[in-house]
Amino acid sequence: MSSPTRRRQTGAAKSLTFRTFLALAAGKTAARATQLAGRGGGTAITGMVARRVDPKILEKLVLDRGEPVVAITGSNGKTTTARFTAALLRGEGVIVSHNSAGANLVQGVTSLAVSYADLRGRLPKGVLVVEIDEGALPRVAPELAPRALLVTDLFRDQLDRFGEIYAVADAIESVADALPPDAALIVNADDPMVATLASEREGIRVTFGLELDRSTDEITRAADTIRCPRCRADLTYRHVYLSHMGDYKCAGCGFERPRLDVAVTSLEVVGLDRTRCEIRTPSASLAIEIPQSGVHIAYDAAAAIAILVGLDVPLEHAVESLASVGPAFGRLEKIEADGRSIVLAFAKNPTSYNTTLRALATEGEPRQLLIAASNTLVDGEDFGWLWDVDFESMAPKVERAVVSGTRADELANRLKYAGLSPRKMIVVEDRCDALEAALHGLPAERRLVVLSGYTPLIELRNEMRHRGWTGRYWDV
Amino acid sequence: MSKRKPPEPPEPPEPTAPESAAATATAPEPTAPTATAPELAAPKAAAPARVPAHPRRRPEEHDHRPLRIAHLYPSLLNVAGDGGNLMAIQRRAEWRGIPVEVTAVEKGETPKFRKFDVVLFHGGQDVEMAVAAEDFAKKAPSLREAVDEGVLIFAVCAGLQLLGHRYISNAGEEMLGAGILDLETRGGPQRFMQHAACKVTIDGSTETVVGFENHSGLTELGPGCEAFGIVVAGAGNNGKDGLEGARSGNVFATYLHGPVLPKNPWLTDRLIEIAVSRAEGAPFTLAPLDDELECRAHDVALAKAMANRGRRTALEPAKLVRGRKTG
């Protein structure tokens, strides 16, 4: 990594077979067909088709090329952290490819490789930054052999897919244990369970977290780890920063938050627009300003910086690099819709919901709401977690809510029990009709807040794109 | 198997004015009593913020003394949104003018459970369940006393398992339960994760109850208790005998998450009636509410349970079911 090269393509790996080329062609064709049909970015279909033709295509494309892979996993912050990491690396002159659209299951990761490879199976030179779903990690990691593995945090997310959070931690630990010593493991020290991952490992291990002299959150019912991962005694927190993340100590066995290699030492969140923070690295202190809002943004920035520390890449242009990274699609993304304003907010579990709701509350939002949840392979089947979201704090602000998605039923019922009068709610399952209904009744002085899970968010955003209000989600 | 039956709201003793629940975009805001803003305090643990009394509170409703609810281990057994069960009981009681007092009972606390009307005991992950089990042994005598006096207990998943005699894990470790329900649970080889439905009969009326199962324990009922329901879709207690949950007197236990009570208003109302009748020493019937949203949630979940019957809905769950080595 010390001498980043500008040569565009690496030589094709030896293991490529006719089947691989067929898979590449098929995957690329599928992506093109999906895009032409206006059905989205083809971000998952590419990999699905390519793997059908050659199940080993991902490792054939990636493993033998001898270029570093950065893998980012965890419950929250993967997409934003991957964007920060890519920006930081590019800022230091490194060539980067990454799955920017957030398709992070095995198909999505394969899509990334297929779409970046040329028809001869050659990937661009440089670092591949890949976000990987925490449940898919055990299956994907061996096909990528990452040089750096980052674990952002672990929250209960889609229990119907993963079983229990402990099982997810176990699976990640086995991947971390299998890393060679020269690979870097980067962990969020503020998350007790993540902090214990492979803590005895001999290779490179970089910790990051917040080091503020005040709390920015309190323990709520969305918190998952408030017991010591070692002895199960209750943890006490000196400061709570975000849900169960903070500066903790176990009274039982003395386990406490490890020393931070990369630390956010000051933090200021400015409305829905900006985050200013001071980040201490082993070699310098950086005054960062990012055009995105929230405590979680500080975590994501520290995580990305910790990755560069782990890869031993200098941070000469970090301040400029991060200053230009706007929100990923749907992360409090602002869209102008024929003179009306829409804020798109992606929320998929109690913690991401509560984080987003807290950010919106700083501006008295949401008042006019379109809220959606759908059960799909990526969004999960069990929506019981909606009852752990702090909708109670949101309900008094809402003047009108259009409830949408294939699980609009569960969502509407949840909102009723959170104190939102059914008279203020309309249930419109179809996403396009829901958008129409939400905009139709929107008072001139109000903006529309869209709170949604992954699949309905993409559907809504595609509808907005067809209306010419925004670009493609995979291009943001 | 049994035919799908649309859920009926409870037989109305008298008609009430229906609310325009989730009706049209143009429905005017009512000028009549509007809800006041609920407390904004962020919820600590599982105790939800208070909501206002139902705007349709009926003036002729006689004064009730508060319904006292003990919520067991809200910060320990808090997975899968089971806290919604508390919200359902609390709101549906309050909407009928019955005040509710909720007491969180955590590790290390042993109140006299007979002083409560309802005890809620929810599910948790294996590690948390083990922590709860150790503590629960100290609570069990007081809880048994409450059961003898007819206090209503509603338990889900880990709560069901710990009300039984014992839980024997795959590794052969034994966790003792309270022995309140005549049942025993063993760790199983797979995790049941799917929408599920069962037929439940309470006081002679039968309804379909829906929820989401997520458990690997296999439970067998002894002769001392009956099933909570008869499986319509899903695995039930063990995937074999077609029984779901357990019941003995006023002790109700189920594997259904979801959370189960908000989308089964019929069940919630029966539980409230049992608790209030016992507390007031006279039979009590709740006035019906507009349950359009609740019934819709029920029907969608039921349709999913029926469509997924015999199929696992989760993605690759089997690879991730081993427990984390702890302690």
Helical amount among residues of chain B, as a percent range? 10-25%
Q: In CATH's first tier, which class of the largest domain in chain A applies?
A: Alpha Beta
What's the arrangement of strands in the largest beta sheet of chain A? Answer: 2-3-1-4-5-6-9-10-11
SS-based class of chain B = alpha/beta
User: What is the count of β-strands of chain B?
Assistant: 12
SSE string of chain B, helices as H and strands as E:
EHEEHEHEEEEEEEEHH
Q: Biggest chain pair contact, residues each?
A: A-B, 63 and 80 residues
What is the CATH third-level topology name of chain B? Rossmann fold
Chain-wise SSE layout:
The complex is a heterodimer of chains A (476) and B (327).
Chain A: H1 18-36, H2 45-53, H3 57-62, E1 69-73, H4 78-91, E2 96-98, H5 106-116, E3 127-131, H6 137-144, E4 148-151, H7 159-162, H8 165-177, E5 184-188, H9 192-195, E6 204-210, E7 235-242, E8 245-250, E9 262-270, E10 274-280, E11 285-290, H10 295-311, H11 318-323, E12 331-337, E13 340-346, H12 350-361, E14 368-372, H13 391-394, E15 400-404, H14 408-417, E16 425-427, H15 431-440, E17 448-452, H16 454-466
Parallel strand pairs in A: 1-3, 1-4, 2-3, 4-5, 5-6, 6-9, 13-17, 14-15, 14-17, 15-16
Antiparallel strand pairs in A: 7-8, 9-10, 10-11, 12-13
Helix pairs in contact in A: 1-2, 2-5, 4-10, 6-8
Chain B: E1 67-72, H1 83-94, E2 100-105, E3 118-121, H2 126-148, E4 152-156, H3 158-163, E5 166-168, E6 174-176, E7 183-202, E8 205-221, E9 229-233, E10 243-244, E11 246-248, E12 251-254, H4 265-280, H5 292-307
Parallel strand pairs in B: 1-2, 1-3, 3-4, 4-12, 5-7
Antiparallel strand pairs in B: 5-6, 7-8, 7-9, 9-10, 11-12
Helix pairs in contact in B: 1-4
